[in-house]
Amino acid sequence: MVLKYYYDLISEPSRALYILLKINKIPFKKHPVNLLKFENLTDEFKTKLNRFQKVPFIHDNDFILTESIAIVRYLSREYGIKDSLYPQDSKHQALVDEYLEWQHHNTRLLIALYTRHKLFKPLLTGDEPDLNLVSKYKRGVVKTMDKIENLWLRDQKFICGNILTVADIFAACEIEQPRMTGFDPTKGRPKLETWMNEVRKELDPVYSEAHLVLNELAANNEKAKL
Amino acid sequence: MGLKLFYHPLSQPSRSLYIFLKYNNIPFEARVVDLKEGEHLTQEFKEKFNRFQKVPFIHDDNFVLSESIAIIRYLASKYEIKDNLYPSNFKQRALIDEYLEWQHHNTRQHFAMFTQHLWFIPLRTGTPADQKEVEKYEKALQETLDKIENLWLGNNSYLCGHKISVADLFAACEIEEPRLGGYDPTKGRPKIKEWLERVRTELNPAYAEAHAALNEVASLHKI
């Protein structure tokens, strides 16, 4: 049976894996899960599909796996991923892993907290956003962008060197996210902006396809401001 | 030259790596970084040792690597290790990776935040702990323990099945941490208590050695 992919393109790691599957031409069956309709929170979902009730995850026959980074590694061993994206050589792979682990408490955490408090929580509860939390996490996002520029990109073309890797895919999918709230973290940062455009260019048309929903929401947000 | 581990005994992932190296008989030089004196915060440290200015990290000759999970994976690819700790079988390894990635925003985050507010911040600032913050993080810690019991352990002896793996090692080193502030996370949780005992026994004497400094601080709370 073909690999089943459960995802919501509104989730950053869901987009990263979607792009990874497509550009490596790994055949998969799409199983979109609508997080904003809480489709993941039913008991049936928990018992039948995934006990953690989060996306993304895969079913490979009866093997269920969650956690996007764990899935990258599984796909690279079981299906094969372009060596430049996730190198087999242990030192090169370790340096890509270094970013994939680092991002959890940096790019991933801060952007998720910022968008949760600025957009998703108010949207789902109808409450006004907590402005203290919003500005606290926005400062966190700004600091993280400093780190991406100064500790990762430095004078390189990409996060882990001069070749695009899965680290760039995961980083870019995160950094796109706050655009839904009208905040573009690459603005005023020519280095980051150049990198982002390179990543988009290298991964298109798949990249744009994965970001279609996000781009629509970002455009609506811009319109609302006019 | 050779492999050098830069670590601190009160850092959870530092202890995990220390135990992993000892348990697998991997030769290494242990180098404590004086976090209390801010050794890692100097410009010299940043340029010479590690641009992220955090522990643990390794120098393997000229190769510098940070992030404990990335390091474990690198060591497992380079050295002979006990296979059940991080199996070469794809699917088994994937299920251990699943825990190693899951823990970042669960065990790691909540145990670290709780211990910070209960113990580190009061110690550093000389002011009593902010009870509201402590209670908030205690709730998150207890929810994480529920998940460890129900979503991970289930009816198994270990987190990822019936054999000990690096998932148990990382989890145990986190769960020990709040004892620094006199808080025992296994209280009222016989299942976690038994599991933690199994992990300690399996990984001793390296486990006890790595936790000597923590145990000393913890013992002060019993007086």
UniProtKB/TrEMBL annotation, chain A:
Database matches in SUPFAM superfamilies: GST C-terminal domain-like, Thioredoxin-like
Keyword terms of this UniProt record: Cytoplasm, Transferase
Main location group: cytoplasm
BP terms from Gene Ontology: glutathione metabolic process
Reaction(s) catalysed by this chain's protein: RX + glutathione = an S-substituted glutathione + a halide anion + H(+)
Subcellular location: Cytoplasm
Domain GST C-terminal stretches: 89-226
Assigned GO CC terms: cytoplasm
UniProt domain GST N-terminal: residue ranges: 1-83
Domain of life, per lineage: Eukaryota
Residue intervals passing through the bilayer: none
Family to which the UniProt record says this protein belongs: Belongs to the GST superfamily. Theta family.
Protein name (record): Uncharacterized protein
TrEMBL record, chain B:
Primary location recorded for the protein, binned into one broad class: cytoplasm
Keyword match Disulfide bond: no
Catalytic activity: RX + glutathione = an S-substituted glutathione + a halide anion + H(+)
InterPro entries to which the protein is assigned, alphabetical: Glutathione-S-Trfase_C-like, Glutathione-S-Trfase_C_sf, Glutathione_S-Trfase, Glutathione_S-Trfase_N, GST_C, GST_C_Theta, GST_N_Theta, GST_Theta
Keywords, comma-separated and alphabetical: Cytoplasm, Transferase
Compartments, as annotated in UniProt: Cytoplasm
UniProt GO molecular function: glutathione transferase activity
GO cellular component term of the entry, any: cytoplasm
Residues covered by the GST C-terminal domain: 89-223
GST N-terminal domain sequence ranges: 1-83
Keyword Kinase: no
Listed SUPFAM superfamilies: GST C-terminal domain-like, Thioredoxin-like
Protein's GO biological process: glutathione metabolic process
Family: Belongs to the GST superfamily. Theta family.
Protein name listed in UniProt: Glutathione S-transferase
Source species: Henosepilachna vigintioctopunctata
Upper lineage: Eukaryota, Metazoa, Ecdysozoa, Arthropoda, Hexapoda
